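Folding Task

Wanted — backbone structure
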Amino acid sequence: MPAEPMRVWPVLNLFTSQKDMFRFADPFYLYMLAAIPLLVAIYALTVWADRRRRRRVADAALWEVLAASASAPRRHLKMGLCIAALAMILLVLARPQFGTSQNRTDKKGIEVVFAMDVSNSMLADDVLPNRLDRAKLLVSSLIDNVTNNKVALCVFAGEAYPQMPITNDYAAAHMFLDNMQPGMVTLQGTNMAAAIRLADKSFTDNPDVGKAIVLITDSEDHEEGAIEAAEEARRNGRQVYVLGVGTADGGTIRMPDGSLLTDENGQVVRTTINENMARQIAEAGGGKYFRVDNSDTAGQQLMVHLDNLKQADTSSSFDEPGEQFVGVALIALVLLVAEYIIREVKNRIIKRLQIVKK
């Protein structure tokens, strides 16, 4: 994913308003340049202290004899080169950028929309650590295995909402997936019809690429219309797969505050998976139903079916910031090499060339 210039450093990011202007991707490191004057002051104080010690040890004439080969200008020059190299290194870390370059990725794959159930029943503990976390781990693994495919994410409970449009930016997909949690959709329920219809609208217009909707849910407390929505998606060229999360024995629902969910009578709610409905939806959508347990079997079975879908060009192009740190790094390298070569003692050859006078 292309790096975005940080916006939390307004003083140092004055030039980031337009993508074709000079900017720093990580301007935090520029604040460390404030240490440069401090280093210069410390060095100057050290030189002053050395001079005072020399005066106590010997007079000026005697010191000239004792330190005949020493060169104060060379010492200052070496320190100056070190400080300048440090400044260049900090600039490298800040990643100077100018302009953009367009990159294109040529891939063949399919398009997959993952619709995640985030209703309270997905907090049931009949699979570990709970239904929602188990589903997130499964989808994360699926995303890692679809390196040539485009993916989209949406969430649903009583209503459905998009989370990430169709893309091959898997880092963003993982970020959105990690942030999914109950409470994102205030209206409770399991409106699978709304989720399927939303997913059906999330694909590109490419007619040649295989398109799949993956519904991850426990199918409990569902609204009507899911089978009809799956049939409509199938007619539009999509295949609907359902990952059923949970067990027939069910489990209790532990809320985020640690308490168990109870009904209006104060009884602890126990939720079970509705596999029959999940199978009907998958069949109507031309796909398959897989039950998610504590193993990776469901994900592996789903990948086999996804791999059989028609693959087509899923290439994408994007603008990438023009990194300019290489030139700055070369300057830092030259400064360090120069500092290493220059000695602190006088050199007759260099003295003759009058590069350094002393």
